[in-house]
Amino acid sequence: MDLERIEAAVKEILIAVGEDPERTGLQETPKRVARMYQEVFAGLENDPTVHLKVFDEGQDEEMVIVRDIPLHSMCEHHLLPFVGKAHIAYIPRNGKIIGLSKFARIVDHFSKRPQVQERLTSQIADFLDENLDPVGVAVVIEAEHMCMTMRGAKAAGSGTLTSALRGSMRSDAKTRAEVMSLLRGRI
């Protein structure tokens, strides 16, 4: 990531909006923004497969659900954050599982790049489907977008819900109904 170039661009933005980048409160802002971008866009440079340590737990093919995984990402349309939670369910095939904390790391990885929520949801589902070969996988993300809260519609508190279903989670109506009910918190 080219931090110097980001700093120069931020300085230009400050000038363009009518600010003085040399005033006391703004002197370090370009450096801070560059470091922040390096952190929030780290998913552009990292490999998500580092989070895949697969365990063999025998023939168990029961549904596993991890809910309320915190996420924050940057909307690629306005470079404003969206913040929310991801919920993931999968049915292992032949007992092939990963540690539960890895789901949070995978969500974090794909969130750390300019994104739209729809693509983020699909990327996580596709990654798990391709790398774990589960019987089925479901990813549901709920988030609030600052581009809707701070500008345009100014619809503070509105939420966006997206889902991506793969394998039996998509093809089997009973499994789909069960997982969607569980992901929404109803047992």
Strands, helices and their partners?
Elements: H1 3-16, H2 29-40, E1 54-56, E2 64-75, E3 81-91, E4 96-98, H3 100-111, E5 114-115, H4 117-132, E6 136-145, H5 146-149, E7 160-167, H6 168-171, H7 173-183
Helix pairs in contact: 1-2
Overall description:
Pfam families: GTP_cyclohydroI. InterPro entries: GTP-CH-I_C/QueF, GTP-CH-I_N, GTP_CycHdrlase_I, GTP_CycHdrlase_I_CS, GTP_CycHdrlase_I_dom. Pathway: Cofactor biosynthesis; 7,8-dihydroneopterin triphosphate biosynthesis; 7,8-dihydroneopterin triphosphate from GTP: step 1/1. Homopolymer. Residues 6-183 form the GTP cyclohydrolase I domain. The protein is α+β, with helices and mostly antiparallel strands and 187 residues long. It has 2 domains: 3-40, GTP cyclohydrolase I, N-terminal domain (GTP Cyclohydrolase I, Chain A, domain 1, Orthogonal Bundle), CATH 1.10.286.10; 48-184, GTP Cyclohydrolase I, domain 2. It contains 7 helices and 7 strands. The chain has helices spanning 3-16, 29-40, 100-111, 117-132, 146-149, 168-171, 173-183, and strands at residues 54-56, 64-75, 81-91, 96-98, 114-115, 136-145, 160-167. Strands 5-2-3-6-7 form a 5-stranded mixed sheet, with helices on both faces. The protein has a two-stranded antiparallel ribbon with strand order 1-4. Strand 2 and strand 3 (81-91) form a beta hairpin. Helix 1 packs across helix 2. The chain is elongated. The protein starts with a helix and ends with a helix.
